[in-house]
Each structure stands twice: as C-alpha cells, then as structure tokens.
C-alpha cells in the first residue's frame, strides 16, 4: 500500500495536470501498468513465468505500456502519457525516473544475459527516445526527445541526437 500512496504522491508532485489523489489513482493508466508490473515481477521471480507474461500482455492491451515482467523497476517511476512505452526483460530502471510516451528501453539482439539498458536514479527520458542495448546511463541523465542512445553516459549529462551525444556548444554543456 505504501508504494501506491508514494506513486500517487509522486505523480501529483511531478504532473501539473494531476488534480487530486483520487483522480490520479483511478485514471492514470501508466500507474496501473507500474502497479501491475510489481505483481508480474513477483510472479516472474517465483518461477510463474507464463502467468507473469500473460498478465503483462493483458496490461499492455489495457494501457499501451509494455513492461516485461523480468524488468527491474525502482521506486516512484512516473511514465507520463505512456502510450507506446516498451521496457525490455533485462532493463533496470532506478528510483525517481521519468519516462515519456513512445520510449523504448530495448535490446539490440538475441544474446543471453543483460541485453537492455540500466538507468540510474532520477533519469528523464524524453518522448520518442530509444535507449538500446546493455548500456548504463548514470544518475541524473536527461535524454532528449527522439534521441537514440547506444553508448553509456556518465552522471548528469544531457544526451540528444541520432546517435545521441552529449549536448555541447564549444566547451559549455547545455542542460535541457
């Protein structure tokens, strides 16, 4: 119950359109997807993989957010306008992250082991961005809209472009 209250409070703090706790709890389908993922992840870790996958696919149908039950999600993840978000099986998302619509945290091949990205704490991933492969984004990284990230990034940088690179002008790093 604490996680649900914490998520609702977080959504109210970070989303200017959130009017009240009841409205957020009842109408934010992205929170419903994250809450369901917690249950599906528990099933996955306890060997009930078919039930976990079936449940995650049902939530995908209901919410437009696909979170593989094997993914590890930290506290207070907020998915804003989540339609089209995909979070792969071996992805790790830190605490207090913000992910916008059409974001993919995906793999780049059929390999074994870690195939998806690892996001640090307080990472913001802009609309339409793709973060691909077994890469690591440090704490407080910002990924610009529609960027394609295929390399690791240190703490606190802002990534933009295709392929993404640190946003710079001369020797000054810009923060979005």
UniProtKB/TrEMBL annotation:
<dbReference type="InterPro" id="IPR045304">
    <property type="entry name" value="LbH_SAT"/>
</dbReference>
<keyword id="KW-0012">Acyltransferase</keyword>
<comment type="similarity">
    <text>Belongs to the transferase hexapeptide repeat family.</text>
</comment>
<dbReference type="InterPro" id="IPR011004">
    <property type="entry name" value="Trimer_LpxA-like_sf"/>
</dbReference>
<dbReference type="InterPro" id="IPR001451">
    <property type="entry name" value="Hexapep"/>
</dbReference>
<keyword id="KW-0198">Cysteine biosynthesis</keyword>
<keyword id="KW-0808">Transferase</keyword>
<dbReference type="InterPro" id="IPR053376">
    <property type="entry name" value="Serine_acetyltransferase"/>
</dbReference>
<dbReference type="Pfam" id="PF00132">
    <property type="entry name" value="Hexapep"/>
</dbReference>
<protein>
    <recommendedName>
        <fullName>Serine acetyltransferase</fullName>
        <ecNumber>2.3.1.30</ecNumber>
    </recommendedName>
</protein>
<comment type="pathway">
    <text>Amino-acid biosynthesis; L-cysteine biosynthesis; L-cysteine from L-serine: step 1/2.</text>
</comment>
<keyword id="KW-0028">Amino-acid biosynthesis</keyword>
<dbReference type="InterPro" id="IPR042122">
    <property type="entry name" value="Ser_AcTrfase_N_sf"/>
</dbReference>
<dbReference type="InterPro" id="IPR005881">
    <property type="entry name" value="Ser_O-AcTrfase"/>
</dbReference>
